[in-house]
Design brief:
It is a single chain. By secondary structure, the protein is an alpha/beta fold. The chain folds into two domains: 36-284, Type I PLP-dependent aspartate aminotransferase-like (Major domain) (Aspartate Aminotransferase, domain 2); 286-376, Aspartate Aminotransferase, domain 1 (Alpha-Beta Complex), CATH 3.90.1150. 40% of the residues lie in helices and 14% in strands. The chain contains eleven helices and 13 strands. Strands 2-8-7-6-5-3-4 form a seven-stranded mixed beta sheet, sandwiched between helices. Strands 9-10-13-12 form a four-stranded antiparallel beta sheet, with helices on one face. A hairpin with a 2-residue loop joins strand 12 and strand 13. Helix 3 (82-91) packs parallel to helix 4 and helix 9 (287-307) runs parallel beside helix 11 (363-376). The longest helix has 40 residues, at 30-69.
């Protein structure tokens, strides 16, 4: 095993149970927990006494996140969650009657409802392309549907039910050929797969902290390319929009030119600093090493499911850590009950059982879940 991965695993040595729900919410690494404790200690003493230091650390966290995303700090904005970031892209974009927004009918709700409301308000048309068997993504159909008149293509990089990964290069190039912008919900990919925003034909990417990035729930973010950012209008406005924190309003002030104009007021120091710590940990280990470990664990899990002659939905060699399977009606509830008893964290998503081990998991834990599948099989 890679020595860096062992160091990474040690950061999670206080967790209990088996955590196979990294596509949902993960335990915190120790370095992130310590960062939270240190921030709270200073706030307990008096936030005003430490305000300058906390602001500096928050700025550093933005720089860290921008580097991790492969872009500039001025293109990165903080939001309360991933849904808010997607709302900035959808409700802030000047859609008009006759425009079309293209998405998939299996998108997570946070990447569907913002576009639904945006289209209803603007008179644009939302087109949801149908999924294939077992929620397969038909990329050819998606590419063929991008024609003149499509203004926005809004999809997830990694699908939340099955872990299917969309080729962002092919998709983005097709969008730009046809005059469309590509908006990507990357929450299921960031932290487990390499991503470099500036080198991809993606115009806006949204994410959140509590899944594969292993940080607190309640911290979102986005990055936007300049051409797309110029189109956006803030959906919430405050002193931050005009970079007028802590002072009187200036009628002649112009909007902040960076992504900070979409941050109307102050943001939470604790979730921002926590995310900075978690991302720094991933950088120190290397996302490629994390990806390789997740691939090793996922292949072992999928191979074991096939060996048990169960209905594996996720392809054996699919990249990423999401593994979905379908259990028989008399098997599923018994298995889920045993998982609850044994403190195994996994979830049901649609017709599937979804498992998503992270790099901090062990092969023994994979084998333990496979044993539960075998034990509960009718």
């Amino acid at each position: 095993m890679n020595m860096d991965i062992q160091v990474y695993q040690e950061e999670f040595n206080q967790r209990r149970g088996i955590h196979f729900n990294s596509a949902g919410i993960t335990p915190l690494p120790s370095v992130t927990a310590r960062t939270i404790e240190h921030a709270v200690d200073r706030m307990r003493e008096g936030t005003s006494l430490h305000d300058a230091d906390l602001l500096t650390e928050a700025r550093n966290a933005r720089v860290t996140l921008a580097r991790f995303l492969g872009t500039e700090p001025g293109r990165v904005g903080w939001t309360p969650n991933c849904a808010t970031a997607l709302s900035i892209a959808s409700l802030g974009f000047p859609l008009r009657p006759g425009d079309r927004v293209l998405t998939l009918d299996q998108e997570y709700s946070s990447n569907y409802y913002p576009w639904k409301v945006a289209c209803e308000r603007s008179g644009a048309t939302l087109v949801s392309l149908p999924h294939g068997t077992d929620c397969a993504v038909d990329e050819s159909m998606l590419l063929d549907a991008i024609v003149p008149g499509v203004r926005i293509v809004a999809v997830s990089w990694v699908q939340f039910q099955t872990g299917a990964i969309i080729d962002l290069v092919r998709l983005g190039e097709r969008c730009h050929e046809q005059g469309a912008f590509l908006v990507v919900d990357a929450i299921q990919g960031l932290g487990q797969l390499p991503f470099q925003f500036d080198s991809l034909p993606v115009d806006f990417v949204a994410g959140g902290s509590h899944k594969w990035l292993c940080s607190l729930n309640g911290q979102g973010f986005f990055a936007a390319k300049p051409d797309f950012m110029r189109e956006l209008r803030p959906i919430a406005v405050g002193g931050g929009t005009f970079n007028r924190f802590g002072t009187f309003a200036d009628p002649g002030a112009e909007m902040e030119s960076s992504a900070r104009r979409f941050e109307p007021g102050g943001y939470g120091f604790v979730p921002v600093l926590a995310l900075g710590a978690s991302v720094s940990l991933i950088e120190s280990v290397g996302v490629l090493a994390i990806e390789a470990r997740i691939r090793e664990l996922s292949r072992r899990l999928r191979k074991g499911i096939l060996d048990l002659d169960l209905d594996l939905v996720t392809p054996l060699e699919q990249l990423g850590g999401i593994t979905s399977l379908r259990l028989a009606p008399d098997h599923e509830p018994v298995f889920l009950k045993r998982c609850e008893e044994e403190r195994v964290a996994l979830v049901k998503r649609g017709p599937f059982i979804r498992m998503s081990p992270h790099a901090f998991c062990s092969t023994n834990e994979v084998d333990g879940v496979l044993d539960l599948l075998k034990e509960t099989r009718p």
